[in-house]
């Protein structure tokens, strides 16, 4: 089930995000992700504080996935400026069950195109994005990560 984010989701989603970021990027230490985690915490808290159901004050739309009959957030997608998939992730226990596809379907809904950036070593993330119609358009060297950041786009069928 998809629903707006709630304040009670924040800490669980941040722990889940950090775990998945570290396991998808084994060459990067936890401290690499700390600034992004702090930013994500501020964005999610701001979303909840302002009681805006879907669109945050920074132009970001958040969708949370929960299993039927549960309130525990098992996945999240955030779309910034109506075109950039800022993050999409699903708990390991729910991966391979269509949850990521459901989140991606929601991200695509009502949009003509989407873009995403993914680090080169995140092979599972890149594969997932390719399965959902994303194709590489550019590469830029990410000095902080010491690897290429791949920019991908998807034209959504209308």
Structural class by SSE content: alpha+beta
Question: Based on DSSP secondary structure assignment, what is the total number of beta strands?
Answer: 7
Poorly predicted segments:
51-57
Taking the sheet with the most strands, its summary is:
7 strands, mixed
List the helices and strands and how they pair.
Layout: E1 2-3, H1 10-24, H2 30-49, E2 60-66, E3 73-80, E4 84-90, H3 99-108, E5 113-119, H4 123-131, E6 135-142, E7 147-155
Parallel strand pairs: 4-5
Antiparallel strand pairs: 1-2, 2-3, 3-4, 5-7, 6-7
Task: Report on the architecture of this protein.
- With 158 residues, the protein is α+β, with helices and mostly antiparallel strands.
- Helices cover 34% and strands 30% of the residues.
- The protein contains four helices and seven strands.
- Strands 1-2-3-4-5-7-6 form a seven-stranded mixed β-sheet, sandwiched between helices.
- Helix 3 links the parallel strand 4 and strand 5.
- It starts with a strand and ends with a strand.
- About 4% of the residues have low confidence.
Defining key terms:
158 residues, alpha+beta, 7-stranded mixed beta sheet, 4 helices
Q: Could you give a quick summary of the protein structure above?
A:
It is built from 4 helices and 7 strands. α1 packs antiparallel against α2.
